[in-house]
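User: Please predict the structure of the protein below. I'd like the answer in structure-token form so I can feed it into my own downstream comparison script.

Assistant: Understood. Taking the following sequence of 194 residues as input:
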Amino acid sequence: MLLVGPSLGAAVAIDFAINHPEAVDKLIFIDASVYAEGTSKLPKFVAYAGVSVLKSLPLRIFATNIAFNSLDLDTCLDWTLIGRLHTLLPWWEDATVDFMNSGGYNVTAQIPKVMKKTLIIWGEEDQIIDSKLAVRLHCELPNAIIRQIPKCGHIPHVEKPDAVANLIKEFIQTNNNLPSFSKQEENVLVPQLE
């Protein structure tokens, strides 16, 4: 299968690919959130206060506004309401507190073990996850290529679906020959991450 993981879904895809390599042919990560370290164990009342803030309409409007490169007000409000739906589920607060107190979904140690061909797609103007982490991920994945989408934020598959579809189509059709860096090029790129 071709496994696609947008944002935190990329961490899930990495975990799945490591634990079930026979099921995965190629991977695609879109603005991957794979370096999260979570929070330390918080007192319950503090965790629930934080969850209440995460659920708030003002914070959701702000997050939606920075997730996209540019949105008019009506579209921003529509995406905010859609993006907030899961927070209204009766079990969401408890599950989110448990997730926060567990330390989050940390797959950092698994990244170098991913041997599948991987396409990393990144919105050039992502304000949610720093593009330096895209470069880091590209350097840590042994069989990856990276492609940026200009004038695009954290959700390229929503903001620029045609560009994402074309990158995925091109990746699927390639004969699995990924460009590689010479040792000299690696020596130049890796220090830039530090």
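That's the full token string. The longest helix spans residues 161-173.
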